[in-house]
Design goal:
single chain; about 110 residues; mainly alpha; 2 domains; COX6B-like
């Protein structure tokens, strides 16, 4: 009985190893190489971003008024870039607000 169990475990392990090898082979055959934007695509992305940001500044950050620029921005740039530029815009606006309006520091525990 013990040899039979060990044999079954061995068979299962071999099947698992073969399945892993097959997955690696299939993944390497079907994997697409990364598609990096060309210089002209990057310039188009940056121009669309700048147009969108200019609209947001002009329209007091109204997404509805700038939807046409947003569509051009999203279609011209890779998704990861769009996320990055969105975070950057919000950070720059926050930083600008802190510089112009100032801030009240948080009261922490007093040190003795």
């Amino acid at each position: 009985m013990r040899n039979e169990t060990a044999g079954n475990v061995n068979i299962a392990f071999n099947l698992f190893q073969n399945a892993l090898k097959l997955n690696v082979i299939m993944a390497s055959e079907t994997a697409e190489k990364p598609n990096f934007p060309t210089k002209s695509e990057r310039q188009r992305c940056w121009a669309a971003r700048d147009d969108y940001w200019a609209c947001l500044d002009k329209e007091k950050m109204s997404e509805d008024a700038c939807s046409k620029f947003r569509e051009a921005f999203c279609s011209s740039c890779p998704l990861q870039w769009v996320k990055h530029f969105d975070r950057r815009y919000k950070y720059l606006k926050f930083k600008e607000k802190m510089e112009t309006e100032g801030f009240d520091p948080v009261e922490g525990p007093e040190k003795s």
